[in-house]
TrEMBL record, chain A:
Described function: Required for correct translation termination and probably involved in regulation of hypoxic gene expression.
Membrane as UniProt keyword: no
Localisation: Nucleus
Protein known as: Enhancer of translation termination 1
Keyword vocabulary terms for this entry: Nucleus, Transcription, Transcription regulation, Translation regulation
Primary location class: nucleus
UniProtKB/TrEMBL annotation, chain B:
Residue stretches of biased makeup (Basic and acidic residues): 7-18
Origin species: Eeniella nana
Any one GO BP annotation for this protein: regulation of translational termination
Protein's name according to its UniProt entry: uS12 prolyl 3,4-dihydroxylase
Listed SMART domains: P4Hc
Chain positions covered by the region annotation Disordered: 1-43
GO molecular function, one term: iron ion binding
């Protein structure tokens, strides 16, 4: 009797008979319950695959075994379809479908993350996974060229491939001829997304991974903007302040020379195209989230924060000698921002209180000094910040102090 | 301890060199310190690496004053210690040449230079790659600087040959809990800080060096007495004093890197100027090792771990079948599925095979949903704010001490105790009545407090703050007490017997709260005092239950800590060494293991999971420090029972 003894006995058993232990493991610890969609046919292998894929998406995505399960099942169904599509029982008919190709490609791309340390020649390196993933989706597109789902899938794979396979290996000294043209790849991904969103058969609000393409796009822009910052220890305090000011006005401080593979992309980030794309597509996605409150909050939050950064840029522009019209524009933006951040507000999420408070402060800063409306907005913001600071045991003390300054 | 170790990222390895609090029977060696005398030429040259101001009589006198007047024990700091360019180069060299790996145990999380654990043994190749670091090492161990430190701390001569220095990197969530640094011949501890040279390290970044006063020797207080926010090129130092020099490194709570060179000056070694034969042995014999063995120190442990007797009559009832009335009571709280014969049989099989069983969805849906909502609402709207100092903890909540072993809040269902001073603790121990816990009574106290507050100033304050959501801890605490009563009930005792087939004869139940940025329990074995001298027919070990009641999510990755972990005490398995260890419950452990194979059970903070396990004496258990970054507290109800095996 005893945990120590049981644990020791298990260890010994494992040492003696590793094979049996593996079997035991599959019987107990790795048992997984996969909930099927309402109305789904429990005997349909594609419904089962789809449910397993959703289980992966809703999990913490740390267990590669689930992902392997998805990949293996895709592989089996592909073969089965090639052999005539009949299951052993002879009744179930398996056909290749856009969904099957899409899940296959997406699962392979997700697997890449678990193999960043693998040797380039191992056959299981990041590149191999992405090549395979692209291969499946391209095969699918050969067969189902109009499928929006497959276009989204290809867009997703490209969007994840750029940071993981390429940018993560770049240094200050990298040259553009050593890497594929990442700007072109990104533009391809965005174009595929745009085309995908025209397909009305795709239920955007039910496909979380499609929204994740937009999130990955946002993250990618952030990665590129900050590229090299971590390695650079030489920025002194004055430069830091200057940088922050430039960023607020929408300018990007780049440390890279023109031969760097990210140089062209940084140039494009300064133009409004990417920002507009993000805003339009997130707004469009938001329209499809009415039935999922949690998702709606998340999407509205992203959109609200995008507007907040635009409002801050507009406010900076106005503050540095802009005309009255630019203030009107800034107020217009911040009002939209507040609308979305109110949609994103949740009584269980102090971050959402703080986002809204920050937007209210930005709005108040644009109003006449000491006006009633300004005071009211400051009060609202301070109350939310205090509440959030209390709920998080002091995480927002700095922001609160700066509000008083 | 080897100077170089495997580079793999490891968890919970217990070989952090900056530790004290050693326990008896554990052979503690000084990690990696090496004898390496520098030449007179090197020594003279290195004096020039310091800021010139250092070696004047006036500076020395001022510094000595500063050290003498400092509290809670003599310590000092020097800003702008080294030539600025040299130290900037050291920083650059370290960040570009040294590979850091994350290491985590019950007492710390830090990034260490795996390939350069102790800088005393710099190879020729490393000297070439780290020329400025080599200079700073020479400077720190130069005669001039040692004389200065020796003079201002009044600690006696310091060894120039026994160098003991390593590099530590604290990133966000890294920390090192309270310890006294007492090992072997260490005489003075020092830390030379190297955060970003161009930015001030603000208190809001965390990572402060915090010094703790002691209640009595070897028992540090819970709250720090003094703290230092580390700046680039600042050195902090203090005399290592057994039983007194308690300190910690507060969690880094920003994304800034806190880099430091940290080490010790030792008692002079043979051949050193100032060597006194037998002095080192004398210093070692005074160390904490010896002190910690004394039973008296356990008087300062709160909560008390002695288990409460269960009356024979009640114990007998546990072995009877569950009645309809029992089931009705249990189902008010528990998941009805757990009452079925099939479930009980299944749980029983798992438990008897593995000595552990995790029961998810232990509370029934309806009860759990409401309770979770109540707890989360309280966490988000806690008023007054979450207690962060000892004086802010209000009865019926109590504070677990001392801080080099544990810190958390608990309710034990017993009367109020004043643990603020040595005298008040002495009074508790002298007049300690073997009071039985009464969670029902505590629940009523909370309810009473809650009703009273509807009319008193707390409500007024809420109104002033115009926050109608503001919630005191009374309601949620009353609900927790109600659940703790479930564990004391005969009905639950019967259910427990059905699952474990163990006859429980003594018990101990706590409600616990681990606050972000504050709380933990270091690894301990079962407190054998719980069984006292009586009945040898008890099973050798303790049946334990933890009902996880953390209402927030996202803990699975483990980065916020707060997980409960059981590990094998491999030393205990060697019979010749385990002798005499039964009374050992001390927190600190030094033994290292090269893999996680010693982990017997691990559970992240979560909602509504009951873990039942039978812990034998070879198993150590701890609750990892809970990060400031975490979204809320870890809450649980924990129970321990001494048992007899019904089937024997």
């Amino acid at each position: 009797m005893g945990l120590g003894r049981a644990s020791k006995a298990k260890k010994q058993k494992k040492e003696k008979s590793p094979v049996k232990e593996v079997e035991d493991d599959t019987d107990t610890e790795d048992f997984l319950t996969v909930p099927l969609e309402v109305g789904a046919d429990a005997d349909d292998p594609l419904s089962q695959l789809s449910a397993l894929w959703k289980t992966w998406l809703l999990s913490d995505r740390e267990n590669e075994l689930i992902l392997n399960g998805v990949v293996n099942e895709c592989d089996r169904l592909m073969r089965l379809a090639a052999e005539g599509g009949k299951e052993k029982d002879g009744e179930t008919n398996v056909k290749r479908s856009p969904e099957l190709y899409a899940i296959f490609g997406l699962a392979l791309a997700d697997s890449a993350r678990f193999h960043t340390e693998d040797d380039e020649n191992s056959g299981t390196a990041v590149k191999d996974y992405f090549d395979n993933a692209m291969g499946r989706v391209d095969n699918g597109l050969d067969k189902f060229g109009e499928s929006g789902l497959l276009k989204f899938a290809k867009s997703s794979i490209l969007m994840n491939r750029i940071p993981l396979e390429y940018i993560s290996h770049m240094s200050f000294e990298s040259k553009s001829n050593e890497y594929p043209d990442v700007t072109e790849l990104l533009d391809d991904a965005l174009e595929l997304y745009r085309e995908g969103s025209k397909d009305e058969n795709v239920k955007l609000g039910q496909e979380l991974w499609i929204f994740e393409i937009l999130e990955a796009f946002n993250d990618l822009q952030e990665i590129v903007r900050n590229f090299g910052r971590d390695q650079s220890e030489e920025i002194d305090s004055e430069e830091e302040v200057e940088e922050e000011e430039m960023e607020e006005s929408g300018q990007i401080v780049s440390l890279l020379d023109e031969h760097h593979p990210l140089y062209k992309l940084i140039g494009k980030l300064e133009k409004p195209d990417y920002g507009e794309f993000f805003k339009d597509q997130v707004s469009n996605y938001l329209k499809h989230t009415e039935n999922n409150k949690q998702l709606k909050r998340k999407v509205a939050g992203k959109l609200g924060l995008w507007y907040l950064s635009k409002a801050e840029q507009a406010a900076t522009k106005y503050g540095s000698g802009g005309k009255a019209e630019s203030m009107d524009a800034a107020i217009g933006i911040i009002k939209t921002c507040i609308k979305h951040l109110k949609e994103a507000w949740s009584d269980e999420d102090p971050d959402s209180w703080v986002d809204l408070a920050e937007a209210q402060i930005t709005y108040a800063n644009l109003l006449p000094v000491d006006s009633k409306e300004q005071e009211h907005l400051y009060e609202l913001a301070e109350k939310s910040l205090k509440k959030a600071n209390n709920a998080t045991h002091g995480k927002y003390t700095d922001i609160l102090e700066s509000l008083h300054d | 301890m080897a100077p170089a170790r495997s580079k793999s990222t490891e968890k919970r390895r217990n070989e952090f060199p900056d530790r004290g609090n050693s326990t008896k029977n554990q052979k503690v060696t000084e990690p990696g310190a090496m004898s390496l005398r520098q030449t007179a030429e090197e020594d003279a040259r290195s004096k020039g690496y310091f800021q010139p101001k250092l070696f004047t009589a006036e500076y020395e006198e001022n510094l000595k004053n500063q050290v003498d007047k400092a509290g809670p024990y003599p310590w000092g700091s020097i800003t702008n210690l080294i030539d600025d360019d040299i130290l900037r180069n050291v920083r650059k060299e370290i960040l570009s040449e040294i590979h850091f790996t994350k290491k985590e145990t019950d007492i710390y999380k830090v990034f260490q230079s795996g390939d350069l654990a102790n800088l005393s043994g710099l190879s020729e190749d490393m000297r070439k790659r780290l020329p400025s670091l080599y200079k700073v090492r020479s400077a720190l161990y130069s005669q001039a600087f040692r004389d200065l430190v020796s003079s201002v701390t009044g600690c006696g001569k310091l060894s120039g040959s026994k160098m003991d220095i390593s590099i530590h990197l604290y990133n966000r969530t890294c920390h090192l809990l309270t310890h006294d640094d007492v090992i072997g011949s260490r005489r003075v501890s020092y830390i030379l800080y190297m955060p970003d040279p161009d930015r001030t390290w603000k208190p809001s970044n965390g990572g402060a060096l915090r010094l703790f006063d002691s209640i009595v020797p070897n028992v540090p207080k819970s709250d720090p007495y003094a703290q230092l926010s580390p700046q680039f090129n600042q050195i902090a130092f203090f005399k290592v004093q057994p039983g007194f020099s308690f300190h910690d490194v507060g969690e880094v709570i920003s994304s800034k890197q806190r880099l430091s060179l940290q080490g010790w000056f030792h008692v002079p070694q043979p051949g050193d100027n100032g060597y006194i034969p037998g002095e080192q042995e004398k210093s070692e014999s005074k160390s904490t090792l010896e002190q910690l063995e004394t039973e008296e120190l356990k008087e300062y442990d709160f909560p008390k771990m002695e288990l409460n007797d269960i009356s024979e009559q009640e114990a007998k009832q546990f072995t009877l079948d569950l009645t309809a009335e029992d089931n009705k009571y249990l189902m008010k709280y528990m998941n009805p599925l757990l009452m079925s014969e099939g479930s009980i049989k299944q749980l029983q099989n798992t438990f008897s095979e593995n000595s552990v069983v995790d029961i998810v969805s232990f509370l029934n849906d309806e009860y759990a949903t409401l309770f979770r909502k109540q707890m989360r609402h309280f966490e988000l709207n806690e008023y007054p704010s979450m207690p962060s100092k000892q004086e802010e903890v209000n009865f019926p909540w109590k504070l677990a001490i001392p801080s080099h072993k544990r810190r958390y809040l608990y309710i034990d269902g017993k009367p109020e105790e004043d643990i603020s001073t040595a005298q008040s603790i002495q009074r508790i121990n002298e007049t300690y009545a073997d009071e039985q816990p009464n969670f029902k009574l505590t629940e009523d106290i909370f309810k009473l407090l809650n009703n009273e507050e509807k009319h008193d100033e707390v409500l007024m304050k809420m109104k002033v703050e115009s926050d109608n959501d503001a919630t005191t801890y009374n309601e949620v605490s009353a609900s927790l007490c109600e659940l703790a009563s479930l564990f004391k009930s005969v009905a639950f005792g019967k259910w427990l017997y059905q699952v474990t087939k163990l006859e429980v004869l003594k018990d101990k139940i706590f409600i616990r709260r681990f606050r972000p940025g504050h709380d933990f329990i270091l690894a301990t074995k079962i407190d054998e005092r719980s069984r006292k001298e009586d009945d040898s027919s008890f099973l050798d070990g303790v049946l334990e239950a933890t009902l996880n009641l953390t209402p927030t999510t996202g803990w699975e990755h483990g980065e916020w800590g707060a997980y409960e972990l059981c590990m094998m005490d491999e030393e205990a398995e060697k019979p010749e060494e385990s002798e005499g260890k039964v009374y050992e419950d001390e927190a600190a452990i030094y033994r290292s293991s090269d893999s996680d194979e010693s982990v017997a059970y691990e559970s992240q903070a979560c909602w509504n999971k009951l873990c039942l396990l039978f812990r034998d004496p070879s198993v150590m258990k701890f609750v990892k420090y809970i990060s400031y970054d975490s979204p809320g507290s870890r809450w649980d109800i924990t129970a321990s029972w001494l048992c007899k095996d019904a089937e024997e």
